[in-house]
């Protein structure tokens, strides 16, 4: 029987089966397809990753791939094709379906972005390990990615206690050592804004981090005056760098819809200007937060901005396209977007200053 790569219409592929499986999972996430499909390919990649190349080739030759836990018929075909040096049909189809920008505009801003300040791993409510998030950010051309898993009060998202966060910092060091310096995984947190405007983590731990995103996740229907005071209290905290998804709204998606919180936006954004806190342009399609009217108000008041993916999976890191398009539509230039800054400038800005 001829080898698969001798088929006349076969397209060559030499990146290997793990890369093919990872790329398929990434494209499925980028296209917002079903999570169970994504996990099927990620589990298959994890199943064969530790195996020597010749063992994988032997399993392909003997038809034993699907005897491995985590490898099914679809992922097995991808592995077999890649082992034979053939571009897997599933990968080719997804590349065609999901190629190109996710949004119609914002390309100049997207090209100027050096990194992403809001991402989650499987240490809280993300779906992938820290290293997979970092490797994908490298592949997307980022200079840096801030890991911002949730803080302890958000139990539904497996928020990190101070002890778990301290252990995570050691993992970040190990990932950076492995990557060798061309890219930096920065330490961070998405810290809950408490009812009284405090931050849901000890000052000692907050002070050890490179950057902090502060967000409201509870009591989103709080009375406007209380919500305004709550948000301004967090903005005034010297540890706060970015105000995350400020209204908390949901406009689409499998979690349903949720109205915006009500607050005095002019007062909140004026406090952001005073304390040099960036307003996040959250790139998740289900959020589109801030709404356009508030985004334009923040622009007019002179706010800094951060365009973030709020990624909970590797493929979602590419959703920055949506936020860049919104920034362009609002006439917000790259000079006001803090994640266009090179790493040392970003870290100097995010450092705990006396003025905060």
Name given to the CATH architecture of the largest domain: Alpha-Beta Barrel
If you consult CATH, what is the topology of the largest domain? TIM Barrel
Q: What's the number of extended β-strand segments?
A: 7
Q: Indicate the overall shape.
A: elongated
Q: Label the structural class.
A: alpha/beta
Unreliable segments of 5+ consecutive residues: 1-8
Quote the beta fraction: 5-15%
Query: What share of residues is helical?
Result: 40-55%
Strand order of the largest sheet: 1-2-3-4-5-6-7
Largest sheet features: 7 strands, parallel
How many domains?
2
Determine the number of helices (DSSP H or I, runs of at least 4 residues).
Answer: 14
What integer is the average pLDDT? 95
N-end to C-end Cα span: 71 Å
Annotated CATH homologous superfamily of the largest domain = Metal-dependent hydrolases
CATH class bucket of the largest domain: Alpha Beta
Order of helices and strands: HHHHHHEHEHEHEHEHEHEHH
Query: Taking Cα atoms only, what radius of gyration do you get, to the nearest Å?
Result: 22 Å
Describe the structure.
The chain is of the alpha/beta class. It has two domains: 14-98, DNA polymerase, domain 1 (Orthogonal Bundle); 107-350, TIM Barrel (Alpha-Beta Barrel). The protein is 42% helix and 9% strand. The protein has 14 helices and seven strands. It has helices spanning 17-30, 35-48, 53-62, 73-83, 89-98, 107-112, 130-139, 162-179, 203-206, 224-236, 265-274, 292-301, 320-329, 343-350, and strands at residues 115-116, 144-147, 184-192, 211-215, 242-243, 278-282, 305-308. The protein has a seven-stranded parallel β-sheet with strand order 1-2-3-4-5-6-7. Strand 2, helix 8 (162-179) and strand 3 form a beta-alpha-beta unit. Helix 1 runs antiparallel to helix 2, helix 1 runs parallel beside helix 5 and helix 11 crosses helix 12. The chain is elongated, with a radius of gyration of 22 Å. It starts with 16 loop residues before the first helix and ends in a 6-residue tail after the last helix. The model is unreliable at 1-8 (pLDDT under 50).
């Amino acid at each position: 029987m001829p080898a698969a790569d001798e088929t006349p219409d076969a397209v060559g592929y030499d990146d290997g089966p793990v890369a093919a499986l990872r790329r398929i999972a990434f494209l499925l996430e980028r296209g917002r397809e079903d999570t169970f499909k994504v996990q099927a390919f990620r589990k298959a990649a994890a199943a064969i990753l530790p195996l020597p190349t010749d063992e994988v080739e032997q399993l392909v030759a003997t038809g034993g791939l699907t005897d491995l836990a985590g490898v099914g018929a679809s992922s097995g075909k991808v592995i077999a094709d890649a082992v034979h040096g053939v571009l897997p049909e599933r990968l080719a189809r997804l590349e065609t379906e999901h190629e190109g920008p996710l949004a119609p505009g914002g390309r100049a801003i997207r090209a100027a972005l050096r990194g992403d300040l809001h991402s989650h791993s499987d240490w809280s409510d993300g779906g992938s390990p820290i290293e997979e998030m970092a490797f994908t950010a490298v592949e997307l051309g980022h200079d840096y990615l801030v890991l911002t898993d949730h803080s302890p009060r958000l139990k539904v998202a497996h928020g990190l206690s101070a002890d778990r966060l301290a252990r995570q910092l050691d993992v970040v060091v190990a990932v950076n050592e492995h990557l060798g310096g061309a890219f930096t995984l920065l330490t961070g947190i998405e810290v809950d804004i408490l009812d009284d405007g405090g931050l849901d983590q000890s000052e000692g731990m907050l002070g050890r981090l490179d950057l902090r995103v502060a967000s409201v996740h509870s009591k989103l229907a709080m009375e406007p005056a209380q919500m305004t005071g709550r948000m301004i209290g967090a903005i005034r905290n010297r540890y706060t760098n970015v105000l995350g998804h400020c209204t908390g709204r949901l406009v689409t998606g499998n979690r349903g819809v949720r109205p915006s919180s009500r607050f005095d936006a002019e007062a909140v954004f004026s406090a952001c200007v005073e304390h040099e806190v960036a307003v996040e342009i959250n790139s998740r399609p289900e959020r589109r937060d801030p709404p356009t009217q508030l985004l334009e108000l923040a622009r007019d008041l002179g706010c800094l901005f951060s365009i973030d993916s709020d990624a909970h999976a590797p493929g979602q890191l590419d959703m920055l396209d949506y936020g860049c398009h919104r920034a362009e539509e609002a006439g917000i230039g790259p000079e006001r977007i803090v994640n266009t800054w090179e790493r040392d400038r970003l870290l100097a800005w995010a450092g705990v200053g006396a003025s905060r």
